[in-house]
Amino acid sequence: MNLENRKRELVKEFSPLLEKTTKVSKIWMGILVAIILVGIYAFFLQLFKGHEVTGMRDNVVWGVYIINFIFFVCLSYSGAFISGILHFYNTPWKNSVSRIVEIITVLSLIIGPIFILLCIGRLDRLHYLFLYPRIQSPITWDIIAIMTDLVGCFIYLYLTFIPDLAILRDHSEDAPKWRQKLYKFLAIGYQDTTEQRETLHKITKTMSAMIIALAIVAYSVLAWIFSLTLQPGWNSSIFAPYFIIAGLYSGISVIILAMYLIRKYYNLEHYIRKVHFVSAGIILLILSLLYGYFTFSEYFSRWFSHKIHDTNLLNTLFTRYFWQFVLANYVGVLVPVVILFFKKFRTIKSITFASVIAILGLWLNRYLIVVPTLETPYLPIQDTREEFVHYTATWVEWSLSFAGVAAFILFFILIMKLVPIIPMSGIIDQEREAFNKKGNAKQTITE
Amino acid sequence: MENKKTENGSTNRRKFLKLGLMSSVTAVAGASIISNFAADEETKPSGEKMRLLTPDGKIVEVDASNVNKYPEALITPEESRKGIPNRKFVMVIDLAKCKNARKCVEGCQKAHNLDHNEEFMKVQLIQDNPEASPYWLPKPCFHCDEPPCVTVCPTGATFKRDDGIVLVDNDRCIGCKFCITSCPYSARQFNWGHKDKFDDKSQPYSPETSVPAAEGTVMKCDFCPDMLRQGKLPHCASSCPMGVIYFGDKNEDIVTNGEETVRFSKLIEDRGGYRHLEHLGTKPNVYYLPAVNRQFPLERGFNVEEDIIERYKDVPYVQQLKKDGKI
To answer: What is this model's ipTM?
Structure first.
């Protein structure tokens, strides 16, 4: 087996993905940039006119922004969690999806915190968080957790990039000069010697274990922002594990969706196969059952014990938010369960459909955790302006939300232009292993 | 070094406590001049002397640089964190006397330069159970002894003082709104947009007055410490024509509504005083006397402007009244 030749082959195979931009993808990128620009306009509008331009008011002080924040940050934590598991246990089919997961992790961890910044009334005083920190505040814990996680995830992502960057450095003679230079710089002299490979493998494995722990801590802290308050809908002891399960649920769904889109638009049917979808689908099935169970426990105990303030909250949920509640907590759980439960339904398209339902349902579930709770405080909302009573997101909030999603997709496309979405080093490692096994088998036979 | 400075400050404080009020500005609280001085370590003697009148009628001469530069005694954000020594402020609201006259709301709005739609004090229409008769409940900030808002603040912009008052320093507030979501009594407001009145710097900002407010920050009822320093009642208590709101010092065990002065402990004991939502464990410093032997029928509370009545339209009792054509 000639490694160098194989590497060259792989670079040749993947270089069109990196260097050629088709017309369709150019149009897509143009649309994404346009959405982001509208978002930037909305941001400046909010910056100069104040939070008046949002739908948030004195009772519902947190709106779509904080929901997006939880959504993206949970997505990131679950990405870290899943990727950590894939690496740590060296899952056999990990190679085709591991890079997708890692990119999702890092990107959502960059975009998530931007949404919390949009919630803050005085961005010019952001540094006060470090000038006058108070360790008692769960927000301070969250800042520490997110920053640690961000650094950890960046290091981890970079570690997994190194072997591929080295391959690209050695084999992309035809690529533009700036690319060659960039690869050379980023590959930090990695030569893929056995020793280097083992060291890198060891570091990556350690990092993957650390990232699982980090993700669990960060998840819990995020849930505590809500559950440590006294509010009827939030003050719940199961919020931390509930958030972990919910995050993983959305995480695996976004991975499936990304797998589907990448497979379709980059013609990677050879690498991302049905087996990947089915395996991810089964994980999604387990998670949807767990998530449904947690959701049920949460609302069931509130309903059964019917403390007056819990009852008020449930009344709000079952009247004003009836359809949202049904969509989030019935459709959003049961449809994926039904699709994934029966073997004959498990096709690539239906699994992707289930994951889309899961993503939308989960986002709506987060909305129902945040907004109705704030609309149903301990003391009934009275003696206040009509427009302060209920919350409806304005176009500013929506356009910034869509800008976040667009930025996520755009950055994803751009990272895919830097390194192949399927790790080449992983393919080589697999082949090397298979070759060695065969070799060993031959040896034993001859012996 | 730090210790030495504090020591200096405290000796100065003792010295100046004897001085009392300044002759030119009679209403100024002595403590503030002193504490301003204590905080301002780098003041150099200017050589210029000022004559001040002490409470016992003596005239003393002090260095001009030691006297507060502001026309009125300004309590800077730093000083406002300390609280008035040896006090433990407490409010008692007699629900039997409230008829939603809304003078407390208006007095508060005027004093804190609030708009018509901004209230630190809200009046709620509460019905404890379906059989109970509804009553008006004036609701200020409860200045809890275990304030959830203070615990969650990431920058210490909201704080609990030794005298029991919970204040917001809007110079420090970053506007994360976590305190608003964690307050179980919905006592806090947010400045969502810019208003011209925020630019009015004729009165320097102090957390004790909450004026001027600032865009993107949180504000709430502050128990009017500026009035307390002058030995006066908070604006809500002094503007209530019914004497609903008693205010006083728990250490002295005395509360007053401006007309009568009573023992706090006896008032609570005799009249069955309670704290709202006691089970939450926040230990409020605002007590309520139950609405028994009412002085006014509840309907008198609807003797207000139409847009105010509209604010209670979601209350089942009000919906019933409207159906019956009574309002």
So the answer is: 0.89
